[in-house]
Amino acid sequence: MSNNQTNNIIEEELIPPAEPGFWKESWYQLTRNRAAMAGLIVIAIFALLAVFAPLAAPKDPLEQTISARMTAPFTDGYILGTDDLGRDLLSRIIYGGRISLIIGIVSVGISLVTGTILGMAAGYFGGWVDRIIMRIIDIMLAFPYILLTIVIVAILGPSLMNAMIAIGISQMPRYARVIRASVIAEREQDYVLAERSLGTNNVELMFRTILPNTLAPTMVQATLGVGEAILSSAGLSFLGLGAQPPTPEWGLMIASSKQFITSAWWIVTLPGLAILVTVLGFNLLGDGLRDILDPRLRD
Amino acid sequence: MIETTTKNEAAVRQEELLGIDNLNVSFHTRRGVVKAVRNLRLNIKEGETLALVGESGCGKSVTAHAITRLVPMPPGVIESGIIRFRGTDLLKLPDKEMRALRGSKISMIFQEPMTSLNPVFTVGSQIAEVFITHEKLGKKEAFAKAVELLDLVKIPDPGKRALSYPHQLSGGMRQRVMIAMSLASPEPGLMIADEPTTALDVTIQAQILQLLTELKARVGMALLLITHDMGVVAETADRVAVMYAGHKVEEAAVEELFANPRHPYTLGLLKCQPSAPSNRGANRLSSIEGSVPDLLTLKEGCPFANRCENVKKECLSSFPEITRISENHEFSCHNPVTGSGDPR
């Protein structure tokens, strides 16, 4: 290998044209995935309605008009009709969306934070730390999901906040598993060793070097988790373990009006439809994200 | 952080940058104990390039990892030894001080530039991170310094390239980024390059080696170059240490080693070079017959005995003592090659 000829050769590697960054590329992929885009639009509509609920709702969700009980949709200016106490159903559904989205985000936040810390510790340190954490996770996974949630609510007492905590805790194991699996894969990568050789400490390695590389599967799990948390909270409220009346919570609305299913179908059906559409939106987006964030499934 | 207590040590410091004495590293695996590095003695002077040569699994990389204390433990164990860096024993340093040394005084570049950069951050921010960690610089200032370094390693349009993600760069560019990263320090003392050119194609290899040599002189750091390519050694190194199965079998100044190899393994390595005169016009490259012994089943005696052409009785029973034939040439062999002359 003679160096003399190559001495003066200036760098001749071609500079590739600036490629779009990660977010830009992902956004492009998202716009091309119709199902995910539909999910995103549904979520965006519900989110906007939730944020601007006082402006969007035509009436006070708690105001009872006894004279207008069980008005059918599209009569007397009630777009979606009224419930058994004469409360405007559209307003209640809009305010309910606020609660549902908060529940989804808070409980996923709880499980994401705890799951990330546990999964990261288990995957990064391995050995006995891993064994202890994962056996606890296994025990939690051995309980049926809804049963575990009910048990936790029963211990904490029925309220909306406790329902969120319960859902967060019972969803946590799956985040811990997902993150542990990706951490184990990333831990052995050369860039981790390289960064260690530059004097980075364990905490920085875990949360600044490795964590961003495990975000893709976690984001998918979290998006799907929001839908599921909304569904579970509706379930808990239906059972009387979540939101308490007169809170306009979708599950609670179904529960308190189930006896009218034959006489005034809209009181039961419309909140149910709202749950369906929101959860469907999150699931579509989550499934789409799985395809978008996995480079192997990109074209 | 580096203290000098006696005048003696200060005198040593001027000469010696890194001194390894009697280093033993083992890996405790399910199948048994693998002694990856045995009784290693090495030293690197300030500003010098030492090449560590040998085939896969001979302990080169383990030595490098031992210096930076990055040997995975478990299963790795540093059984004994001293690694002095400017008078401080690195093996006795608390973790925190060792971390402060890594990346500032001792840095490492790895074989695989394709996977040695974090895929989710721009290369500029990854270099800047080193400044932020070690010098507590602000983000903007660190990033500006990162761009300067990219310029130093001759990346065209460094301001723009600093904003690129690793996957947007070619292998050679990434290795340049790795080099820039290892230079991200006010006074780098030792750079360990673990087969820095193995994953690159030949023209880029030459450029990277050229760059390393240039930077070394400019920054005034020493280089521990780990390689299995004798061509690379001839071009860049001042001194060469040849390792075989965990032992250092020969060490000499580079011209001396090429002109007068004494260990049969060194001679074999030199003969394997396509440019060696014995290969000229030949149909097949010469090679060293046989293969490296399993480190698990290694017995007393010279580990090279099973492949050696002039093996003797004592080769099988005891490992040869180090023979020093001059100030800058030593080897471990019972029956050294005598016929001098350049095998090339």
Strand content bin of chain A: under 5%
Rg over C-alpha atoms of chain B, rounded to the nearest angstrom: 21 Å
Bin the strand percentage of chain B: 15-25%
The largest chain-to-chain contact, stated as pair and per-chain residue counts, equals: A-B, 32 and 52 residues
Would you kindly provide a written description of the structure presented here, covering whatever features stand out?
The complex is a heterodimer of chains A (299) and B (344). By secondary structure, chain A is mostly helical. In chain A, 69% of the residues lie in helices and 0% in strands. Chain A has helices spanning 4-7, 22-32, 34-51, 53-56, 89-125, 127-142, 145-156, 160-187, 190-196, 202-210, 215-238, 250-256, 265-293. The longest helix of chain A is centred in the middle third of the chain and has 37 residues, at 89-125. Chain A is elongated, with a radius of gyration of 25 Å. Chain B has 344 residues and is an alpha/beta fold. Chain B has helices spanning 7-15, 60-67, 95-101, 123-135, 139-152, 158-161, 171-182, 202-219, 230-236, 254-259, 264-271, 313-317; strands at 16-29, 32-45, 49-53, 76-85, 88-89, 106-109, 190-194, 222-227, 239-244, 247-253, 323-326, 329-331. In chain B, strands 6-7-8-3-9-10-12-11 form an eight-stranded mixed β-sheet, with helices on both faces. In chain B, strands 2-1-4-5 form a four-stranded antiparallel β-sheet. In chain B, α4 crosses α5 and α5 (139-152) crosses α7. The radius of gyration of chain B is 21 Å and the shape is globular. Classes of the chains: A mainly alpha (299), B alpha/beta (344). Chain A binds chain B through residues 1, 3, 6-7, 9-11, 13-16, 18-19, 21-22, 189-191, 193-201, 204, 209, 212-213, 215, and chain B through 68, 70, 99-104, 107-108, 110, 112, 115-121, 129-130, 133-134, 154-157, 160-161, 163-165, 168-170, 172-173, 178, 181-182, 184, 202-207, 209-210, 231-232, 235.
